[in-house]
Amino acid sequence: MDNSIYKAYEDEIQSLEEEIKLLTEKYEDSQQESTSFSDEQILMSIKSLETEFQGESEGRESPSDLKAQLESLERGLSFLMKFTGIQFTSHSKKTVEKTQNRTVQKHRLLGNCHSLSFQLEFQLLEIQNKENVSAVITDLSIIMESGEDSDMSKFVSSTEERGNLLAFFRSLSCYAEWYEHRRSTFLHFK
After folding, report:
1. pLDDT in the model for residue 181
2. What's the rounded Cα separation, in Å, for the pair 78 and 57?
3. What does the DSSP 8-state code read for residue 104?
4. How far apart are CA 113 and CA 88, in angstroms?
5. Predicted pLDDT at 34
6. Contacting residues for 173 by C-beta, under 8 A, at least 6 apart
7. Rounded to 5 degrees, what angle do the CA atoms 34, 35, 37 make?
8. Helix, strand or coil for residue 36?
9. CA separation (Å) from 2 to 7, 15, 16?
10. Among 16, 94, 121, 130, which is most exposed with the fewest C-beta within 10 angstroms?
């Protein structure tokens, strides 16, 4: 009878160890996830960092230099958004697999280009060799609201097959700009 009690305790200990392992993995995944922040949250973070840097400026760049760099980066980003019409509204990243020389991350991007909304989901596979790092996009999924245009849906399908994000954003920028022109022209004649 004592053996059956020990067996029950051992089974309970094993199930608790498995539960701890699962909870630990869940916790690590949640710590690695990136969340999207609003513009106000980003500005508050920048301001808090500025106040921290004001007290710790020894041996580092001065806060005014950092502020000038930040303003320069913001101007560059603003220029690119105006030039391309592409604006990202949300981004999340989750590490799916990580080994010594291989990392797989799942990304999700939400945004709009002029008046067209888009959503991208893809996995980024990074393989690190001795000298360099190569990155490959896999499992690309693109969701767009302009489903009535068959040419655009064909383009989206071929882009998903090839996994070429650069071609997608270039074409999206041009297409969305002309889509906006066509829409405003048709509204003018109505």
Report:
1. 82
2. 28
3. E
4. 9
5. 45
6. 84, 85, 86, 113
7. 135
8. coil
9. 9, 20, 21
10. 130
* pLDDT tens-digit series, residues 105-128: 999 999 888 888 889 999 999 988
Return the closest-CA partner of residue 33 out of 107, 102, 84, 83.
Answer: 107
pLDDT of residue 56: 52
Q: What is the CA radius of gyration of the chain?
A: 24
Chain position carrying tokens 């996994």: 163
Burial class (CB in 10 A: 0-12, 13-18, 19+), 126: middle
Token digits for 163?
A: 């996994």
pLDDT of residue 37: 59
**Cα(176)–Cα(170) distance, rounded to whole angstroms?**
10
For the CA atoms of 25, 26, 31, 33, what is the dihedral angle to 10 degrees?
110
Residues of the chain with pLDDT under 50: 34
Residue 94, strand partner residues? 106
Burial class for 95, CB neighbours closer than 10 Å (0-12, 13-18, 19+): middle
pLDDT digits (tens, 9 = 90+) for 84-111: 888 888 888 998 888 888 899 999 999 8
Cβ-proximal residues to 41 (8 Å cutoff; 6+ apart), any chain: none
